[in-house]
Amino acid sequence: MADAQLPDFPSLFSVKGKVAVVTGGSRGLGLTAASALLQAGASLVFISSRKASACESACAVLNALPNLAPGARAVSVPADAATLAGVKHLVSTVASHTPHVDILLANAGATWGAPFDSHPDEAFAKVMDLNVRGVFNLAREFAPLLQKRASVDDPSRIVITASVAGLGLGTLGAQGTYGYSASKAAVIHLGRNLAVELGPRHITVNSICPGFFPSKMSNGLLELSGGAGKIAEANPMKRLGRPDDIAGVVVYLASRAGSHVNGAAIEVDGGALWQRGELLEPGKARL
């Protein structure tokens, strides 16, 4: 029967031969995603963050992975994704290596915690500039490279790292992350608009919304909430996020398996956002 025909099923979750750019790719979820793309068959993954030394260290780790495709490699491209000049530098440097890009992971992000009454204007602006404006600039400036070999059957992909904080309340109280939660809500909505705008150009746009994953950005929030163990126990799945959880959803969205997913915001939080009693006391943390 026709419904049972799945031609070339083994390649469904492959990104063989694809070229990817990962901002904020030198550590945390970005580095995990870059590793996943390389191990799923990508031929070239550009790692970008503000610090050159961090990019180079990440590329050294990635290029030492034992199961990469022949010739596959990670390339360091330091750039500040919060500024248009930084984004243009990233695009031009990538274009000097390759005539096309297949996958753009807009992962670079920032947060800031401070009480409402003394929350700094410059901190709010910094978070919004990187988490929202920077993503829009990345999408616009990379669009020509993303269109180069995109097609109806094999669209290029933009994947935005958002957060469950953009779908519900963020952290309130003494370490209120007002700009962060607002920026993640904004970038999810931006992603949906871009999905409709860029779909006819054969580019899908989706957001992933992680919950708590131990990382440099989230460790402080974990401690504010009583530690990783307490947050894990409160999760419906009784654990925090693991690298494989992010790797799986990134590869899914970037591979043929996700080619008809467009405008989605996928929570990767074990269901914590939807559990009963979700509201926390003021000052308690939510990523």
UniProtKB/TrEMBL annotation:
UniProt keyword annotations, A-Z: NADP, Oxidoreductase
Keyword Oxidoreductase found: yes
SUPFAM superfamilies in the record: NAD(P)-binding Rossmann-fold domains
Family as reported in the entry's similarity comment: Belongs to the short-chain dehydrogenases/reductases (SDR) family.
Protein name, per record: Ketoreductase domain-containing protein
Organism: Lasiosphaeria hispida
GO molecular function annotation: oxidoreductase activity
Domain Ketoreductase: 18-211
Pfam families, A to Z: adh_short_C2
